[in-house]
């Protein structure tokens, strides 16, 4: 029963998205890149929820649930890949060494 | 029957050529040696059969005429691919197919150890097909197709051993010089076509009338013929064309292709009669060429180049005869020349082969003992070339030309007589240097039957082939002239006993002088090196003049124009493409973070555009 | 006005925590800040009238996904050498380009928000779980199916990669 301004939520979402993007671009550690992608997904979810609140529509939250699903699948696969790389004997989780296609 | 057989004459060598070309050298050597001469042999058989049926049962219209198909039909112009066989093309067809067959049989032995024999025979058969199309075509456009075909084959065969730069350059030179003539010929044909509306030869000859346009057209056609026949000033390509294999020189650069111009002018004789100026020009060109070429032949050291210059000189006689209006004389000399010059080239080829591709006469000598058969064949050819009286074919044809030249102008007669003297001189210089004296090199091996038989057949023809046509003083046989009279009309009776005697004495004097100068001595002969002789050996400096006047300016222009604007544009396109691809390739670094960055940048741009 | 204040407060907490996440050298610290950011976001969702989303965020994101991350960090045991290397990677020169790019994106997005007609007066009512559930299994049936497919695919691929891992060891 609150009366918050949805547009403030949108601004927060935008800022969070930009931060997440910065994280993806700056960090070379795959783990941090995954976390940053989660941040960006969260920001998108926040934008949907804000828009849903603005129009009194449950669709925003439906999209939020979709995004959570994406995030879960992405985290599962991404973390499995990280584990795999670690197990294959890679000394670091350096994403920039991924272009050597060494497995 | 004749109509059915006529296309087969061309089709056999063409089919042989296509088979050989498509086999791409994968065919067994024996099969190649069978298909090459075999296809031309079938063509020669067809030609002989045609000749017998033509002569025993002459067609009412005077010629067999076969229209194969209509090529172009435009408003105001029509051309068709049609073959026609009259007495003139009959003679030419027999010369091309029969001598071609003999030379190809010879070539099968000559080229036996060459790796590219398949390519060689493919080109040779293609050449025979083109040449037969040229002589049988009833339409000038079809003749032009054959004309270009023989030019192409000449280029391909001169540069046959293209691994050596000089051969490739000689081929290019032959092609470019004859191409200039081809361009002249084509312009001349176009001029006639616009005038008459067709290029069908009988129609052209019937509708033509004297006038400046006809004179111009004739001059252009003469230019084309001169380039093909290596007449001054287009003569520079023929000596270099000796870079090709010797059978090529025998077939293309002695017997057939270089005489294509003579044939064309004889074929269009009514057209040339309408332009007296062109006739005079033709006679003068012929005389100048025969003198210059004979002078050059006197100083050569390379046996094939002697023969090349003598070919030019003899072609000069033919042009002189054409200019005099003695069509029979020109064709008669063409035929006898085909006999003895093909024979001489074959003999030279046999010598060269057994001397391990040595062509310098000053390193031969004394070969009479080593290869008597080749010597006698070569001697027969030399006698015919020198025109020794009574015992050679060349004598009768040359006498016919000399008497006609006297009829036109004594000056031309004197030029031709001097030429005949020099011919005897350089021919027997060549014989004495090559076959007499001390041996300066060793001949190896053995001249096989496949080479010996064609040479002996041609030797007989070179000696006795002249008795088709003899002056009134010696029998007065007129077989050849009578054969051709339906085409050319009756032959004029010219000459006299006095002229005949002088013409008979001059070659004998020439041979005697040759014996006194180059008779076998103990000392090893050396080529004379007087500056004048050097100039003569270098083709009177024509090559140097052309290089200085045309080739170098052209190359300079090309070098200057190398970086022109259009090139810059295309270079710029390449540069932009290359640079762009470099940039794009750098984007594909394989690093996920960079890709994410590009996605973000793209998003920013898309948003900026969207707002 | 106090409601606006709460949105701003939660937003600020989330932004600050997120900034800490992307600058930490130790993964565990980053993940803890991430949990803080997610809890702040959950509060933000609640104040935007979406309690269902807030609960899901706490349970699934902060509860499940982050725990998964923590497990992975524990398994691969990123120790002291990794931390120093991590610090060497986070240099100002590395930060500069991406920050500029992100700032550009932020500017354009804010500019776009300012020009939109969405920002009208606050009139928020709560959209409860019932409404969400009705629309999920009503008009968005296909979306639910797609989500289930996606989860299945994620499950299969994670299982595949993990199994190969086990065999290799």
TrEMBL record, chain A:
Organism of derivation? Tanticharoenia sakaeratensis NBRC 103193
The cross-references to Pfam families, in alphabetical order and at most eight, read: Oxidored_q2
Lineage, top-rank taxon, reads Bacteria
Q: Which reaction does it catalyse?
A: a quinone + NADH + 5 H(+)(in) = a quinol + NAD(+) + 4 H(+)(out)
In which compartments does the protein localize? Cell membrane; Membrane
| Segments crossing the lipid bilayer | 6-26, 31-51, 63-83
Q: Give the record's subunit note.
A: NDH-1 is composed of 14 different subunits. Subunits NuoA, H, J, K, L, M, N constitute the membrane sector of the complex.
A Gene Ontology biological process annotation?
A: ATP synthesis coupled electron transport
What range does the record give for the signal peptide? Answer: none
Q: Which InterPro entries match?
A: NADH_UbQ_OxRdtase_chain4L/K, NUOK/Mnh_C1-like
The function of this protein is:
NDH-1 shuttles electrons from NADH, via FMN and iron-sulfur (Fe-S) centers, to quinones in the respiratory chain. The immediate electron acceptor for the enzyme in this species is believed to be ubiquinone. Couples the redox reaction to proton translocation (for every two electrons transferred, four hydrogen ions are translocated across the cytoplasmic membrane), and thus conserves the redox energy in a proton gradient.
Protein EC: 7.1.1.-
Recorded name of the encoding gene = nuoK
Query: What keyword terms does UniProt attach to this protein?
Result: Cell membrane, Membrane, NAD, Quinone, Translocase, Transmembrane, Transmembrane helix, Transport, Ubiquinone
What is the official name of this protein in its record?
A: NADH-quinone oxidoreductase subunit K
For this record, an example GO cellular component is:
NADH dehydrogenase complex
Matching NCBIfam families: PRK05715.1-1, PRK05715.1-2
Example of a GO MF term: NADH dehydrogenase (quinone) (non-electrogenic) activity
Provide the family line: Belongs to the complex I subunit 4L family.
What is the membrane topology listed in the Swiss-Prot or TrEMBL record? Multi-pass membrane protein
UniProtKB/TrEMBL annotation, chain B:
Any one Pfam family match given in the protein's UniProt record, by short name: Proton_antipo_M
Q: Key word Membrane present in the record?
A: yes
Location within or outside the cell = Endomembrane system; Membrane
Q: What is its main location?
A: membrane
Q: Where is the NADH-Ubiquinone oxidoreductase (complex I) chain 5 N-terminal domain?
A: 71-121
Q: How does it sit in the membrane?
A: Multi-pass membrane protein
- What's the protein name? NADH-quinone oxidoreductase subunit L
Q: Write out the transmembrane intervals.
A: 34-54, 89-108, 120-138, 144-162, 174-194, 206-227, 248-266, 272-294, 306-328, 334-353, 374-396, 411-436, 448-468, 498-518
Species, as recorded = Tanticharoenia sakaeratensis NBRC 103193
Any one GO CC term of this protein is: endomembrane system
Molecular functions per Gene Ontology: NADH dehydrogenase (ubiquinone) activity; NADH dehydrogenase activity
Q: Name one GO biological process term.
A: ATP synthesis coupled electron transport
**Entries under InterPro entries matching the protein:** NADHpl_OxRdtase_5_subgr, ND/Mrp_TM, NU5C-like, Proton_antipo_N
Q: Which UniProt keywords apply?
A: Membrane, Transmembrane, Transmembrane helix
Annotated ranges, domain NADH:quinone oxidoreductase/Mrp antiporter transmembrane: 137-422
Q: Which domain of life is it from?
A: Bacteria
Automatic annotation (TrEMBL), chain C:
Whether Transcription counts among this entry's keywords is no
Listed under GO cellular component are: plasma membrane
Gene3D superfamilies in the record: NADH-ubiquinone/plastoquinone oxidoreductase chain 6, subunit NuoJ
Primary localization class, coarse: membrane
Q: Which reaction does it catalyse?
A: a quinone + NADH + 5 H(+)(in) = a quinol + NAD(+) + 4 H(+)(out)
What is the protein's membrane topology class?
Answer: Multi-pass membrane protein
Q: Name one Pfam family in it.
A: Oxidored_q3
Keyword Kinase in record: no
Q: Which residues cross the membrane?
A: 6-23, 30-52, 58-78, 99-116, 136-159
Molecular function as annotated in GO: NADH dehydrogenase (ubiquinone) activity; quinone binding
Which family, according to UniProt? Belongs to the complex I subunit 6 family.
Record-given protein name = NADH-quinone oxidoreductase subunit J
